[in-house]
């Protein structure tokens, strides 16, 4: 455990900034939250963890004034809040930095931070006073360590920089509590470290933080206290000295998880897919050479912008190659479209499953059948019976938690949605599976199920390429790791060479000793 910090812990005798007592919320037939009591102290970082469906989102909606609790009391500085609305939540100094950033990319940084609260010039036309606006934004950007100006278009910023804008926006309302919801899920290591430093600086300024994350090692590093929810109730609270991965997991799921990365000695098969001098649109002058073997999980690591997703899109036929060749089983193939890739048994589980992997408004059965309609059709008519039977087989095989295959996919948890994406391809006998950030936004129990499914596929002889920004994941799951830097493979680490240091060195363009 790592609890080192030069920032003192909050005074336990101080009056809580916010206090919840016996808070509960019930929807028709579902108890979303029951009897929750939490004190949030000034300058305290609380780690909030729990599996999907544990009640975290309901609690956040209550604190944000989006929904009202059915029971219990909420105290602000010791005084009871009778009714918390979105407006009163903001006025109380409660701010959110969501996983899905809430910014207008067509506006500049300053306009996003003070949208609807811009200083106006005197006179009848109520024009925005840009000079005053810049002066108001500058100290906020400095406080979050930003190196861009108030006039920078948000569309030109990286994801990490856009997150800084969100934090600056939170500080602009004189936030006393900032709630971070999965803030590092899309960030590579360097940007994650920067964010954790910002959280420590907020704590030093006396601002309270709720840090929600499935990345338990980050919670362990940053939290003064961890609150664990399970099935809508408080499963337990861990003081700083007691915070650890196993302790959190045990409270989250009621048991200790078996080791997830037991990797027996195996001998991968022949080369399934080879990129030979492949060039992507992002890096047309940087050829990529990479081999993926049957029966192995090849991890693909690198910083944001290193070209990993671009390579995956070329291999799957979404983007065209600007040079080089793709070989399958030693023979050069043409992959000019996703249809070409699918016909050859090359499948992609995309980074953004909600936009590119599934149709949220469609039932599970239709999502699973979409990729292979001819097989499920007779005389050009889809057989509903075959569709249901195929989907039900995959639902049972992958353990998709849903009442039936008629359930709307958008109502499922992130882990179960990812299983639906996977089920779509498994019904078609994959040869090569490309996973792009396979466990992003998925709770720890579902993560381990996804890892188990990937390992089972590899054991069955499928070649797997796994792109991941989660260092713990890419090290723990991969048999070998290829690391990209500025559009090229900087190095390939065999299993006995894999370490966090070696991955990081290659990712920043250094040589491994």
Task: Explain how this protein is built.
- The chain is an alpha/beta fold and 513 residues long.
- Among the domains are: 72 residues, no CATH class; 153 residues, Rossmann fold, CATH 3.40.50; 63 residues, no CATH class.
- It has a six-stranded mixed beta sheet, sandwiched between helices.
- Strand 19, helix 15 and strand 20 form a beta-alpha-beta unit.
- Helix 4 packs across helix 5 and helix 13 crosses helix 14.
- The two termini are 28 Å apart.
Any idea what the shape is?
A: globular
- What is the architecture of the domain at 271-345 and 430-507 at the second tier of CATH? 3-Layer(aba) Sandwich
Major β-sheet annotation: 6 strands, mixed
Strand order of the largest sheet: 6-7-8-3-9-10
Quote the average pLDDT.
86
- Strand portion: 15-25%
* Weakly predicted, low-confidence segments: 1-5, 257-261
Structural class: alpha/beta
Assigned CATH superfamily of the domain at 271-345 and 430-507 = P-loop containing nucleotide triphosphate hydrolases
How is the CATH topology of the domain at 271-345 and 430-507 named? Rossmann fold
CATH class of the domain at 271-345 and 430-507: Alpha Beta
Helix content: 25-40%
State the gist of this model:
The chain has helices spanning 56-63, 86-91, 109-113, 130-143, 159-172, 189-204, 216-222, 245-253, 308-315, 338-343, 353-356, 364-369, 384-398, 414-426, 444-459, 471-477, 500-507; strands spanning 18-27, 30-40, 45-49, 71-76, 79-80, 94-97, 177-181, 208-212, 225-230, 233-239, 271-278, 288-293, 297-302, 325-328, 331-333, 346-349, 377-378, 381-382, 432-436, 463-467, 480-485, 488-493. By secondary structure, it is α/β, with parallel strands linked by helices.
